[in-house]
Amino acid sequence: MQTHTRRLTVLVQFLVLPTLLASPSDTIRTNSLSALETMQTNWRAREAAAEAAASRFLDGGQLWVAGSIPRFDIEWLGRAGGLMPVVVMKDPAAVAAGGVLVYGCLQGAEKADAALLRQVHEKGALIVAFGGASRADELKGVADHFLPNGLPTDTPMATQVAASMDLAQLWAFTGDLVGACTRAGKMPTMWQSVMVPGARDRNAKYRPLRFHEDRTLPAQESGALGKQYLTAVVRGVTGLQTQQQRMAAAGAAIRETVKAGRTVFHANLGHFEPARLLPETFAVPLVVLPGAQAEAEIRAKGKRGDCVLLVWYTEMPTALLQAARDAGATSICMVASNPAQPLDTSLADVFLDPQWVFGDAAVEVPGYDVKVLPPSGVLNSLVFYSVLAEAMSG
User: Considering only CA atoms, which of 68, 66, 70, 132 is closest in space to residue 102?
Assistant: First the structure.
């Protein structure tokens, strides 16, 4: 008990230290806001891509998703606030003419991406690619539309944070695709978060459909839904300033764990898994816990001086946090807030609010029964990378 109290005292002391220089987390936040502003300014390029994709989708073309960004495809598949009629591209040969491929390009993988996309392009599919502006020329010849993320290159953990910005651009594009469909008198079927009561029955009703047959929505102005989404993400990223000292405290706890030769455990609940973008030689080695056995692994392997970093969804992972406490490990936990049911964060040594809320949908479409377009993948990954950047800063 005394050791646990001393650890909390150190963390509290760190929280009140003044910040004299821009910290890594502050730089990531500032540069992400710059990228989001660029996306908002260049909305017409995104709208043009959305219009072209919507035209094919309305004509019966399939929406495919893939990418060299790990889990980019899963971020767009079966996602709260996302489109229902989406298929993961596992083989370029499966893509048919008339379809649309949405593709996320990892920085540094452009040559391999171009070779793969060339196969899809030759089949007559429309390609909408997302990635860094510095390598756009390598992809312009094979992508019908390339939407750069606009992230400054001097960002800490730039490759990883760029992927977070690609997700923001992806969801803004999705909003604009939906808007284009409404102007044609159609509303695509979209998922509601299964965490919301009644969502599973609601989703099952619409899952077999491409477009709603029971509702007609007002036509949305060009770019309107994408802009609304980015505005919501800007609000969330701006709000991360309130978490800056907590992210620094989390980073300090991880840094001390690594220096002491102890283990940093990590578990994630969500479609996008930000740890997948870390290189094998990353300076902060993480032991990624298997989802179903995470608690058992902590209880079996966790020891005093270890650290447990949890990127979670909308409920506190109480069992995991208790296991960490019982082992004497420091716990860092990120969970979205629920205005109707305040979280009990007492088991977390450092609690982080990623600035999105229960329901995981940021945009209200007039006439639609649920909000759409999820911010969680963007904001959770930004906080995760910010904490790791802080861990490497000392």
Answer: 66
